[in-house]
Amino acid sequence: MDNNDILIRLRYALDIRDMDMVEIFKLGGVELTKEDVRKVLTKPEEEYEEYDDEAYEDEVHIKCTNSMLESFLNGLITFERGPQLSKDGTPVKPDRSIKNYSSVNNVMLKKVKIALKLTNEDVIDIIGLAGVTITKGELSALLRKEGHKNYKPCGDKYARNFLKGLAIKHRG
Fold first, then answer.
1. Series of mean pLDDT values for 10-residue runs along the chain (172 residues)
2. Per-residue pLDDT, 55
3. What pLDDT shows up at residue 54?
4. Which of 12, 13, 84, 126 could in theory staple to 165 by disulfide, Cβ–Cβ 3.0 to 4.6 A?
5. Quick one: pLDDT at residue 107?
6. How far is CA 41 from the centre of its chain?
7. Where are the alpha helices (DSSP H) in the chain?
8. pLDDT at 50
9. pLDDT for residue 85
């Protein structure tokens, strides 16, 4: 699952309109037009593996980089919960958590959980809606910070089924 795939599935699961997508990206610090969002939400004709974290763009497709995805997820948190404020009332700039491609699914899981105010039990139930069982211990390992001794990379199986479960929960 690539970053564009994650965005496509998140948009479908949460039923986010194009203009809301533009706003969410803007809240995360990325300026995209409605047409740009549509290009990000299309699948490419062929895979562009050689463009790892570079933004690839053509007439019908824009490759979503790790930075763009994280900006979207940070914008989603702000869109759903409002801006995070420090003790003196100034907005706090979110940290960058995606270090490499193996941590993308972990960060997505963590930030969507925060944005939607989900508990660990909610996440377990959502993944269960897709027919996959996950224990509290396994979930805890997926939500750990990369580098923690109990951190476990989140594979596409859990990420895909989490997004599938979200779609079932929010769309019926």
1. 94 96 95 94 65 57 92 95 82 74 90 96 97 96 93 94 96 81
2. 52
3. 52
4. 126
5. 94
6. 13
7. 3-14, 18-27, 34-40, 66-81, 104-115, 120-129, 136-143, 156-171
8. 47
9. 80
The pTM of this model reads 0.86
What SS3 class is residue 89? coil
Residues ≥6 apart with Cβ < 8 Å to 70: 28, 96, 97, 98, 107, 111
Task: Please give the structure tokens belonging to residue 100.
Answer: 């490499």
Q: What is the largest CA-CA distance in the chain?
A: 49
- Please give the structure tokens belonging to residue 127: 């993944």
Q: What is the pLDDT of residue 46?
A: 58
Side chain identity at 88, as an amino acid letter?
A: D
Alpha-carbon torsion 156, 158, 159, 165, what sign?
positive
Handedness of CA 49, 69, 2, 138 (dihedral sign): positive
CB neighbour list of residue 39: distance below 8 Å, 6 or more residues apart: 57, 60, 61, 62
Tell me if 57 sits within 8 A of 63, measured CB to CB.
Answer: yes
Spatial distance between the Cα atoms of 168 and 85, rounded to a whole number of angstroms: 33
The values of phi and psi at residue 103, to 5°, are -100, 0
Phi, psi of 134 (to 5 degrees): -135, 140
Residue environment code for 31-52, b if the CB has 16+ CB neighbours within 10 A, otherwise e? ebeeebbebbbeeeeeeeeeee
